[in-house]
Amino acid sequence: MARASSTILAFTILTLSSTLLPTNSHQFSTKLNKREMGISAKREKLSHLHFYFHDIVSGRNPTAVRVAEAAITNSSATGFGMVVMIDDPLTAGPNMSSKIVGRAQGLYASADLSEIGLLMALNFAFLEGKFNGSTLSVLGRNSPLSAVREMPIVGGSGIFRFARGYAQARTHFSDFKTGDAVVEYNVYVLHY
């Protein structure tokens, strides 16, 4: 009899707990309230950021390091298959002694067999002013031998949540012997 009452008690506890505990609905998507996300009352802003990107591949402390290359790279005029990981400083002016406003962190890869064309996948991680702690994400093609290159801004974090826009890059300085370069960036971004 004690065994039967223990079984009934255990069954009752399991039944009650399964009805009282929240169920996992495994719902794929839900409609969100814009106000709860903090965007309904706010209007989109258009911000312009101007800075210089220092890609340093030479010397004792490079900020851009080749991490992979295809066997074909040695015979490819474009370096096709080469992958470079970066943590490049972003400065207010073209000189490295200028104030650091952020870092460009990510990678670029040679993705074109016929001309120098890079796939850029990186974040601009800002360290200055109201943008401190916020990021912008770039994903696009960069033709470094063109006078002006345009790459899409595909998102961001912090102040730049829901961001979209574009970055224009112009080479300010390039040393073909060392591979070092300073690139001027003008970034135009819509955000809340």
UniProtKB/TrEMBL annotation:
Matches recorded under Gene3D superfamilies: Allene oxide cyclase-like (2.40.480.10)
GO biological process, one term: phenylpropanoid biosynthetic process
Signal peptide bounds: 1-25
Keyword Signal set for record: yes
Origin: domain of life: Eukaryota
Sequence similarity: Belongs to the plant dirigent protein family.
Function field: Dirigent proteins impart stereoselectivity on the phenoxy radical-coupling reaction, yielding optically active lignans from two molecules of coniferyl alcohol in the biosynthesis of lignans, flavonolignans, and alkaloids and thus plays a central role in plant secondary metabolism.
Complex formation: Homodimer.
Designated name of the protein: Dirigent protein
Organism in which the protein naturally occurs: Salvia divinorum (Maria pastora)
